Amino acid sequence: MIKDNLKSIELFFKGSHFYRGIILTTSILIPLILFYAIDLFIYAPSIAIGVFLNAPSDVPGSLRRKINGTLLSIIITALTTCVILFAKPYLYVLVFLIPILTFLISLISAYGFRGSLIAFSGLLAMVIALGITKETPTQIFTHTILIACGGLWYLLYTLFVNRIIPKKDEDQVLSKTLLLTGKYLKIRAKLITKKNNRTELQKELFLLQSQITENHETLREMLLTERKRSGRSHFDEKRLLIFISLVDIFELALANNLDYTKIDSHFSERKQHLKPFKNLNVVMGNHLIMLSESIIKGNKIPTKDKLLKALKKASKGIKHYVDDVQLPKAREGAMMLHNLYDYQEKLLYEIRSIRRVMANVKSASSLKLQDTEAVQFITHQEYSTSIFFENISFKSPIFRHSLRLMISMLVAFIFGEVFEIRNAYWIMLTVIVIMRPNYGLTKERTKNRILGTLIGAAFAIAIIMLTTNTIVYAVLAALSLTFAFSLIQQNYRVGATFITTYIIFVYALLDPNAMTVIKFRVFDTIIGATISLCATYFLWPNWEYKNLNDVMQSVIKNSTIYLLATQNLFHSKNTDTIEYKVPRKEAFLAVGNLNAAFQRMTQDPKSKQIELDLIYKIVTLNHTFLAAIASLGSFIQHHKTTEDSEQFDIFINFIKNNLDYTYALLHKDELVSLNNESDISVAEDKLLLNFEKLSKKRNKEIEKGITVIDKGLLNDLQEAHLIYNQLLWLKGLSENLKKSTQKYVKTFN
């Protein structure tokens, strides 16, 4: 336990989050020290505020978006500061201006994650301006210009530092993706034998899938956009190769979503035969986790001995099972183990590809992705003005959140004015920091903010009672700022703790009566948190069950496109086609969004988790359906398949019709069922007959004493077994999805 904690601490200090915290702190300290040295310290705080206000928009992504985002943040924070300072002497003007600015700025969140951080910077500028005293127009304009200069200084400073120590963000996101993928494989290992815990494990998988998908999108923007802009260096190519292998690992894992009902029926009395395969998954997962640590630490990669040993045991496991059960009874179980082994062997190949790239092996795979192909994998964020106006509607969660935030900020301001609360803008600060469009996240942040504030206040009190040394306060304030910015996205509670200590120590430097500051800090945080939580619950609440219909439509639409792309892949035999890979990526993203929406729903109040079991069933069905398509596509890509099959097309058309019907239910279109039950029954019988013929052929070989199966016959058996079972599985899943959606639509209409 101690060893793990020490490892986590080491990874934190070597990671990009701490590195970014140091950049923020030094970018604030440098102008403070410099202006103090030239006897112009009076201007330094304004520049420091400019740095602090514009740092949030500096998040991982392409260089162009980083620069444009920071410049936009500088314009918004400077203008907001200027307007508020001019309006500050006039209470009634502020009462009118604060809600208008809050609403307009918060609508910028419609432009994605970076947009939400720019909006946060604008709102933060408004709140901080309320706590600053600038009386004359000259003072106001000077302060505004210096804030803009502070933002530009931060941008230039980060660009310069990143030139010296490049690619820190890419390594951090790659490391995190390796870590999450390793955990994903380990949970998949548990699913093989943990029959009673599968529901909880499946929910863990959904959460991990959402996180992995988000990281993949970030890496696509960082690696593919940058490559398109400036070509590729050796380091860029290495990172891109690792990323491609990670995507392949994730998609292979999704593609082999096992039919656990069949596994239980064949191996419930012989679980020992599953252990080598379970162990191989665990070993591969642990290896990815160790590789994730190697990227951050820069140390040697672990040896491959455990991987090869585990693979060898899994290979022998198939023979042990056949020897135990005996053919032909063991055939179906042996086929399942063969398919599982093939999948794990491909996973191991991709892991070894990552190892070769990290070890700089000259024979590592070269990059085949063309720029024209790469751009198709990037999910572009639209920045047109139409996005802004499209979100001015009660149907938009961003619009409702903006209204909610607008009213909350006005209430917080008026509350502070009426009761003459000292530093009342802290209440408003708490509101903008805590309030989120989703109730569950707002509730979680409320709890963490209050706990963090109390812990931070307790720590600050202990230090202030021990010493009145201003140098100690200054050092602790700088350290607190570094850790606060480093941890705020990773662990909000700990980040909030350091934010509190930072604010208190800064005030302790300026005001000898720091204990009063602590009291008001805690009091204002509780008031702001209460306002946020009540507003999120009562004012146009964004209950997740109301948003699921659109998300499910997207999943069905993208799954249908992916199904048809898999059908084309089967006929064309072209295994390296962009027409297959892009629909696959879009389908995975859609299911990832559905998983994330379900996770948010579980955070809503119990009374708002309407038909949670039904929705969980639909989420699981969609996930399993996507996995079944991916499994079919993966087999076609990695195995030689027979000529075009009429039965294959009949199944695909039947399944597509079920998906079309399901989409029509959700979209409230006219329902037309085109399924032909007689055709699908004939196709099913023919596919089964083909498998039975091959099985009989193998039985005759066994009777003749031919114990070693011919590779061609093995491939034909695997194809017949997998395609028959996968098509049958897809058919059943599409029918269950249609029935569950009918129930869902009936419940929510």
From TrEMBL:
<feature type="transmembrane region" description="Helical">
    <location>
        <begin position="492"/>
        <end position="510"/>
    </location>
</feature>
<feature type="transmembrane region" description="Helical">
    <location>
        <begin position="402"/>
        <end position="419"/>
    </location>
</feature>
<dbReference type="Pfam" id="PF12805">
    <property type="entry name" value="FUSC-like"/>
</dbReference>
<feature type="transmembrane region" description="Helical">
    <location>
        <begin position="140"/>
        <end position="160"/>
    </location>
</feature>
<keyword id="KW-0472">Membrane</keyword>
<feature type="transmembrane region" description="Helical">
    <location>
        <begin position="22"/>
        <end position="55"/>
    </location>
</feature>
<dbReference type="InterPro" id="IPR032692">
    <property type="entry name" value="YccS_N"/>
</dbReference>
<feature type="domain" description="Integral membrane bound transporter">
    <location>
        <begin position="411"/>
        <end position="534"/>
    </location>
</feature>
<keyword id="KW-1133">Transmembrane helix</keyword>
<feature type="transmembrane region" description="Helical">
    <location>
        <begin position="522"/>
        <end position="540"/>
    </location>
</feature>
<protein>
    <submittedName>
        <fullName>FusC-like membrane protein</fullName>
    </submittedName>
</protein>
<feature type="domain" description="Integral membrane protein YccS N-terminal">
    <location>
        <begin position="72"/>
        <end position="334"/>
    </location>
</feature>
<dbReference type="InterPro" id="IPR049453">
    <property type="entry name" value="Memb_transporter_dom"/>
</dbReference>
<feature type="transmembrane region" description="Helical">
    <location>
        <begin position="92"/>
        <end position="110"/>
    </location>
</feature>
<feature type="transmembrane region" description="Helical">
    <location>
        <begin position="453"/>
        <end position="486"/>
    </location>
</feature>
<feature type="transmembrane region" description="Helical">
    <location>
        <begin position="425"/>
        <end position="441"/>
    </location>
</feature>
<dbReference type="Pfam" id="PF13515">
    <property type="entry name" value="FUSC_2"/>
</dbReference>
<keyword id="KW-1003">Cell membrane</keyword>
<keyword id="KW-0812">Transmembrane</keyword>
<dbReference type="GO" id="GO:0005886">
    <property type="term" value="C:plasma membrane"/>
</dbReference>
<feature type="transmembrane region" description="Helical">
    <location>
        <begin position="67"/>
        <end position="86"/>
    </location>
</feature>
<comment type="similarity">
    <text>Belongs to the YccS/YhfK family.</text>
</comment>
